[in-house]
Structure formats: C-alpha cells, structure tokens
Amino acid sequence: MTQSIINSTIKPFKATAYHNGEFVPVTEQDLLGKWSVVFFYPADFTFVCPTELGDMADHYAKLQSMGVEVYSVSTDTHFTHKAWHDTSDTIKKINFPMLADPTGTISRNFGVMIEEEGLALRGTFVINPEGQVKVAEIHDLGIGRSAQELVRKIQAAQYVATHDGEVCPAKWQPGDETLAPSLDLVGKI
C-alpha cells in the first residue's frame, strides 16, 4: 500500500450476502450509522478460515451489544457461502452477513486482494459510523486472528471517539486509565 487506509472513507461497493438463510444485498451505505467490522478471509471450505469465523461467531453477541455489525468477505459467491453454512457445524454458528466478492471489488477497495490467486488476504477493518477506517490489520494466509483482541481494539476505538483529547495506551481495557497527550506529559511515560 502506498497510502494508509486509516481515516480513509470506505469506497462504494455492491454485494450479495448470505445472511439468516437468505440472499440479501449489501452496499457501503449499510455500514454507515454504526460501527462495523469488515473481516476478509481467503476462501470457504478451507482450514484456518473456519477457525476464525467460528471465533468471530462466538464473539458476535458481545460485538452486537457494543453496537457493532460484522461483515465477513471472501471472493467466493453467495451460493458457496450458503453451501458452506449448510454443511459445516462451525459455520452454522454464523449470524452475521457473509458477503460474496467474486469480482474482487471489495477486496481491492481495502487493499487485500491477491491478484494472482483471486483470493483476499486475512484483513480486518474497523469502520466508524461515519464510514472511516479506524483499525486496519492484514495477515498472511497462514496466520489466524483473535476476535477477543478485536473486541478490545473496538472498545478502544469507541472510547477515543467519545472522549476528545484522550488516547488508550498499550493493553488498555475498559475501566483502565487513559492518557491525555500534552506538553507536560512529554518524556514522563
């Protein structure tokens, strides 16, 4: 990437998602007005991907309680998402929209497309209600992610968004002290 995606506004897209037993349209407009996670993975019916999606499904109720919607995305079709959902006990747990990106448009918009393979890298993006990317994390295909750590990052992003002038230090958890950057704080940490 030549330019950081942090604080950029999400680009327009149209997709079909498999969600709650139905095929539904999703656009970038659906992400506005709430916190969102766009969670890219390489492909359905693979190995690390179901462990990550299962972990996200296990944390979905917590994320929803925080006002966050999750959108998983792969370059598979919405038909493939349904077939995977219907045949895998792990994937049956998923209650969030599974977006199909067979043209790679969404994957390219977020800078995670592996052109020569037609797959997306493991990318996680936290988007604020205004449609700006606040967290971006991209992994190589063999490295799985943790939904628990994602929850902590979203809590920090939400805290900073509502507490002007405060920042969250490393390993911050809700209820921990924050920092208020100032001239007096320089060199004191």
Automatic annotation (TrEMBL):
Annotated catalysed reactions: a hydroperoxide + NADH + H(+) = an alcohol + NAD(+) + H2O
Name of the top EC class for this enzyme: oxidoreductase
Domain Thioredoxin: residue ranges: 4-159
Domain of life: Bacteria
Keyword Kinase on entry: no
E.C. code: 1.11.1.26
Keyword Oxidoreductase: yes
Family matches, as Pfam families: 1-cysPrx_C, AhpC-TSA
Record keywords: Antioxidant, Cytoplasm, Disulfide bond, Oxidoreductase, Peroxidase, Redox-active center
Location(s) in or outside the cell: Cytoplasm
Entry function: Thiol-specific peroxidase that catalyzes the reduction of hydrogen peroxide and organic hydroperoxides to water and alcohols, respectively. Plays a role in cell protection against oxidative stress by detoxifying peroxides.
Subunit structure: Homodimer; disulfide-linked, upon oxidation. 5 homodimers assemble to form a ring-like decamer.
Family listed: Belongs to the peroxiredoxin family. AhpC/Prx1 subfamily.
The name this protein goes by in its record: Alkyl hydroperoxide reductase C
Species for this entry: Shewanella cutis
